[in-house]
Design a protein that fits this description.
Short-chain dehydrogenase; Rossmann fold; oxidoreductase activity, acting on the CH-OH group of donors, NAD or NADP as acceptor; 39% helix; NAD(P)-bd_dom_sf; 14% strand; SDR_enzymes; 223 residues; SDR_fam; alpha/beta; globular
Length: 223
């Protein structure tokens, strides 16, 4: 049966490839973006354009356009990746603030706004990073990204506990070191390969394993 899948940050990289995976699976995909690209619209997705996920009124627009439509899978994929190291400048602190807004508050805001659109067996996927793992940090730097993803992990764990009572499961995901514009096209895995792994992890998500933190290769990661 066709599912309704909502994906943020879908204009390129991992988000675009996830759109392809779910479309290939026969699902209805709704992409939430700032500005649509030809590649995205040509896929046949439904596009909600002009959305700034850190703005409350903009998120309200998403809720209004979705109305009472049931969301089977919500994938919070949009993110910002910057690098800061000591000594931190005022520009660095501004960068850190922006990453918290986009990487932590935006997915929490959108998920909160769409709670009434979830039903029993709905799933939420939070695109985090192992760089947000305290236990896994051995290289420092990237203050904003690490801190914002760590905070996202805590918000996601909270959500998983509260949403479980509604029959909604949640996965916290690390895609891998993916070759995208965000990483300046450095990495060791393509967006296509990462998307297949993420697709499988989400498929295997249940209320029994809700709140887990997984690599796209299926490995369980430490918080």
């Amino acid at each position: 049966m066709s599912r309704t899948v909502v994906i943020t940050g879908a204009t390129g990289g991992i988000g675009l490839e996830l759109c392809k995976r779910y479309l290939d699976h026969g699902d209805h995909v709704i992409a939430i973006v700032r500005k649509a690209t030809d590649e995205l619209t040509e896929l046949g997705t439904t596009v909600i354009e002009g959305i700034d996920l850190i703005d409350a009124s903009s998120v309200d627009q998403v809720k209004e356009k979705l109305n009472s439509k049931t969301i089977d899978i919500l994938i919070n994929n949009a993110g910002l990746f910057e690098n800061e190291s000591l000594p931190l400048s005022e520009d660095d602190f501004e960068s850190i603030r922006k990453q918290f807004e986009i990487n932590t508050l935006a997915p929490l805001r959108l998920t909160n706004a769409l709670i009434e659109n979830f039903t029993t067996d709905s799933k939420v996927a939070m695109m985090s990073s192992r760089m947000g793992s305290i236990a896994d940090n051995s290289s420092s730097n990237y203050y904003g990204y690490r801190m914002s993803k760590c905070a996202l992990n805590m918000a996601s764990k909270n959500l998983s506990i509260e949403l479980k009572g509604k029959g909604v499961s949640l996965a916290i995901l690390h895609p891998g070191f993916v070759i995208t514009k965000m990483t300046n096209f450095q990495g060791d895995i393509t967006p296509e390969v990462a998307s297949w792994g993420l697709f499988k992890v989400i498929q295997n998500l249940t209320l029994e394993n809700t709140g887990g933190f997984w690599h796209s290769n299926g490995e369980t990661l430490p918080f």
